[in-house]
Task: structure prediction
Amino acid sequence: YQTLFALALGLAFGFLMKLVIPHHISDGIKDYALSPFKTVFMNSLKIIIAPVIFFSLACCISQFKNLSDLGRIGSKVMGTYLLTTLLAVCVGLFYNHMVRPGKVGFALNSANSLSAPTVDVSTDASHSFLDTIIGIVPSNFLQPFLESNTLQLLFLAIICGIAVKTIGEYSKILTDFFEACNSLFLTITSAIAKFIPFAVFCSISMLIYDLGGSTIKHLGSYLCTVIVALLTMIPVYSLLVLLLTRTNPVTFFKNIKEGMLTSFSLSSSNAAMPTNMKVCTEKLGISPKVVNFSIPLGATINMDGFTVCLSITVLFFARGYNIPITGSALVSILLTIILLSMATPGVPGSSIVSICVLLKVANIPLEAASLFIAVYPMIDMVGTMTNTTGDMAATFIAAKSEKLVDMEVFKG
Result:
């Protein structure tokens, strides 16, 4: 609610600066108040990109060792999560192709991009698919952290996450260390997220003051495209429930409405987790032994809404900065999106960090994130609801296949 209020206030203040306040005063407010705060906020995001991605994914992958204890249930849960993630990527690419929000080069005319670093399109666009695969493996351990090379960080996180459970007596020490570091940087992320309302106010105020109506129109088109694409996942989940469980999707969504509304309000998969687990057991009739594994895991690695958003966002900004995305570059981007969906923590503001990561992979100026921040609050609420709906749908599908659903409870 604070972020939405900041959004409305930023809109009003931006028009006030543009239409009422003298320009020399407005320029002073922008240069000495709004712009410095936005710069500090963006720099704080840069600080935590590498550690958040590495430790989040390393801790996540270390949980995969436990799947052997759960046998078929764990495999079916993971398989369903992977299926919904791939469908989310397809939905995002479909809407991007059909709507194509944003005119080519529109962001190059914005004042926000004037200070952006020069874009070397050849860095990613000229690479072949083989070069991309070879480049995933770093020549040393520290280089990916120093350069914030996302694919290499993800590779190291996966290797460490898998290996940490196989080294005997030191396994617990390293697991605890990874979890401690993960908690540390998630805490820092949460602390930075508390300033999101201020960042939204600054970004939207500067957006209205600096940009023309055409750029605002492009952002509005992008926002509508993302929200419609996110809502499209609801019929996708309905179809999966119908085909894979042979149950009524209407009854399913009627039973989980409390969890969906809670996720929408809190904008946090982790914060909504207790409600979603209660809904799964008390409304859907799912066995607790499935729920206790699937929902916490889903809050960590199943981010369908986030995946839809990223698929559209990176291509939207690539058009905005007139950066061509070749086939091999698109493969790298999609691979990064899928891995980021596993690594992104379910806390408010985490999507902004991941947007910065993906912009770097696509060689798009990081300043584009300031445009994303302006519309982030509305996307975050709908995206989080989509994330948790996917968690509950996958949990129900896996449990139903194992006959671990009490249909009397489900039917009410």
Summary: The chain has 19 helices and no strands.
